[in-house]
Each structure stands twice: as structure tokens, then as C-alpha cells.
UniProtKB/TrEMBL annotation:
The chain crosses the membrane at residues 1-15. The keyword Electron transport does not apply. Residues 54-288 form the ABC transporter domain. Its main location: membrane. This is ABC transporter. It is found in: Cell membrane. The keyword Transport applies. GO terms for cellular component: plasma membrane. It comes from Parahalioglobus pacificus. It comes from the Bacteria. It is a multi-pass membrane protein.
Length: 303
């Protein structure tokens, strides 16, 4: 019997720990992620970050030595700009996000935020300046309102309500049996993928971090939900430095810069229109998604 109770008790402990002490949702990824022991460098200082610039400088990475995943990836996201990363499944897009959060250290090269190498600052300060809307949002067995509050546990009720409004969740809330007090999550009402993402956007708005990362869901959302999510995002992205991992190219049309990743290398970079004009890798992806014939597109698109 004790064998049964111990793991259950442990799970309860983990849940209470997460629920009670989480300053933001990323901490949960930190707890759950299978990651090597990344520790603060000796004498690490807090990151000094205003509205932020993010720079990847010749970043290479391998999860294990014999299989390179990223190869000399370089880009800069200027203050207030939106960078989109596109590419086939397995190209290394999510790995870039894991490195930005420092779940892993780059094998070579460096990542800088406001000119500070993230390997030299405290992990806590690094993660406090990044808000992420992940592919799969985890909802706790709590009300929708409290699920949003996880973004910043010290937020006032008014601030939580404002985040719900900015994330275009009001329509959903008005349909729930007990409004925002309705229990959601495993033992509560199940929300759709798009609704969960909007809860996640609300959390991120509440967190108020200067860097925003949106890891778009792979599953296709209906166009009404997609438009609602895009509206939510464009409202907040204006004042943030943002990085979007995109599967649906409709979300990247307005990006200041689009990177096309192939096999861990940046093979193209530019705006939507300049990349369409180029008629290579991005144009192929775009036309494939539009389901249009590739008249002017070179199928053998290569770097
Ligand atoms: P998707 O569009 O399918 O999400 P992606 O472009 O985001 O793909 P990544 O998730 O970054 O790709 O994965 C890049 C490569 O790294 C893949 O080949 C993947 O199998 C591998 N990979 C990812 N995570 C790990 C890990 N923890 N250990 C070993 N290999 C991994």
C-alpha cells in the first residue's frame, strides 16, 4: 500500500509545488523538461534587459555529438520586431527556442540578449524576460481565471480580466456555465486547442515579458480561431520583440524577417514578398500551403 501512496503523494507534492510556487508557466517546462544539468555560471549576474534585442551568433548545436541539429545559425531580432522561423518538421525550429531558454547550451557560437551572453547570466533572470505561447498549453485543474493568473501570480483581478479581454477570450467566457470561474483542465471542462492557446496568450500578456515566443500549434486550427489568435498576437506583439515558430505561413506574412531553416541551416532570409520573389525554398512552402501550382518556383530550391 505504501508503495502506491508514495508515488501518488509525490505527484501531489509536485503539483502543489508547481501550483504554489510557479512564477510563470515556463517554470513548469523547466520542471518537466528532460534536460541536462544547466547551471548558472560562477558569479552569474542577473540579465539587464529593457525592451530587448535578441541575437543568435553562429549558433551550432547537437543533442548528442554525432548528430548536428543546428549549423551556424545567425540572426538578430531588433527591438520591437517580429522574426518568423519556418521550415519542414525536424529542421530545428523548436530547438532554437530551447536554446534561447537555455534548456541546453549551444555547442558553438553564442546567444545574446541586449548584448549579454545568456550563458553568463542567471537562468531565473533570463526566463523572466521571455514569455512563451507553447504548442501545447497545459491547463491546471482550476478555473479559467486562475489558469490565466499563472502568468503572474501577483496580478490583480482587474489585470487578469484585462488579459482575458486582450486575448479575445471574452466570447468563450460568456458561453461557459460559470464564466471565468468555470473549472477547466483534466477534471474540468475540456477546451479546444485554439481556446487553450488563447488562455496561454492571456498568461503571456499578463507576464508582461519584453521577449515573446510563439510556438505555433502544428494541428491546423479552423480559420476563425486562427484569425482570433492572430488578432490577439498582433495586439501584444507591437510592443515586444517576438519570435514566431510558424507552421501556417499565414501567420508570418507580416513578419519583419522570415528565416527558412533546412536541416539546421538558414537557407533563406527576408520578408514575405522578397522571399516569394526569390522563388525558392520559402516560395515552395508558400505555394504548397496555398495549394497552388508552382509555375514560377524552382523545385530544387537550395541555399
Ligand atoms: P517540428 O516542426 O516537427 O516541431 P522542428 O523544426 O521544431 O520540428 P526540432 O524539434 O527542433 O524540429 O527537432 C530537430 C531535430 O532534433 C529532430 O531531428 C529531432 O528528432 C531532434 N531532437 C529534438 N529534441 C531532441 C532531444 N531531446 N534529443 C535528441 N534529439 C532531439
Amino acid at each position: 500500500m505504501i508503495q502506491l501512496f508514495m508515488p501518488l503523494g509525490f505527484l501531489g507534492f509536485v503539483y502543489r509545488e508547481i501550483k504554489g510556487s510557479m512564477a510563470n508557466i515556463e517554470n513548469m517546462f523547466e520542471l518537466l523538461a528532460l534536460k541536462p544539468a544547466i547551471v548558472d555560471a560562477p558569479g552569474a549576474q542577473p540579465l539587464n534587459c529593457g525592451p530587448a534585442t535578441v541575437e543568435f551568433r553562429s549558433v551550432s548545436f547537437a543533442y548528442n555529438n554525432n548528430r548536428p541539429i543546428l549549423d551556424e545559425v545567425s540572426f538578430t531580432i531588433d527591438l520591437g520586431q517580429k522574426l518568423a522561423i519556418v521550415g519542414a518538421s525536424g529542421a530545428g525550429k523548436s530547438t532554437l527556442v530551447k536554446l534561447l531558454f537555455r534548456f541546453y547550451d549551444a555547442t558553438a557560437g553564442s546567444i545574446l540578449i541586449d548584448n549579454q551572453d545568456i550563458a553568463t547570466v542567471t537562468q531565473h533572470s533570463l526566463r523572466s524576460v521571455i514569455g512563451i505561447v507553447p504548442q501545447d498549453t497545459v491547463l491546471f485543474n482550476d478555473s479559467l481565471f486562475e489558469n490565466v493568473r499563472y502568468g503572474r501570480p501577483s496580478a490583480t483581478d482587474d489585470e487578469v480580466e484585462e488579459a482575458i479581454r486582450l486575448a479575445h477570450l471574452e466570447g468563450l467566457v460568456s458561453q461557459l456555465p460559470e464564466g471565468s470561474a468555470t473549472l477547466v483542465g483534466e477534471r474540468g471542462l475540456k477546451l479546444s486547442g485554439g481556446e487553450k492557446q488563447r488562455v496561454s496568450i492571456a498568461r503571456t500578456i499578463l507576464k508582461g515579458a519584453p521577449i515573446l515566443v510563439f510556438d505555433e500549434a502544428t494541428s491546423s486550427l479552423d480559420s476563425k480561431t486562427e484569425q482570433a489568435i492572430l488578432r490577439s498576437l498582433s495586439d501584444i506583439a507591437k510592443e515586444h520583440t517576438s519570435m514566431v515558430i510558424a507552421h501556417r505561413l499565414s501567420t508570418v506574412v507580416d513578419a519583419d524577417q522570415i528565416l527558412v531553416l533546412q536541416g539546421g541551416r538558414v537557407v533563406e532570409a527576408g520578408t514575405h514578398l522578397s522571399l516569394l520573389d526569390r522563388g525558392q525554398a520559402y516560395a515552395s512552402l508558400w505555394h504548397a500551403q496555398q495549394n497552388q501550382p508552382l509555375s514560377a518556383v524552382d523545385d530544387s530550391a537550395s541555399p
